[in-house]
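Hi, here's the filled form for the chain we discussed.

Project: internal
Contact: R.S.
Residues: 93
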Amino acid sequence: MNDYRLCRLSTCDGELELAGPPAALRALARLLREPWERVEAQVSGGVVVQERTAGPLTVSLRGEATLHLSGGHRYLDILWDALDGVAEQAEKR
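And the returned structure, exactly as it came back:
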């Protein structure tokens, strides 16, 4: 199943974790790569919101359950590649 909703967002003691099965991480990366100005992805434990801007990359936790990403394509691409990379590494284990 290639469903990004199987990803999970959690926070504990000021630490944020976005995790999930490899297929779900890849599905989330694909969704975030869509050329829309704003993307919201409901995941287990919260929401991932991405806004494309002309500025640098910003990553923040809004409230207790919203991971907010913003920045230009070249900066967001770093995050998308990281999601794919984590999925690849998990499959090698």
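Let me know if anything looks off before we file it.
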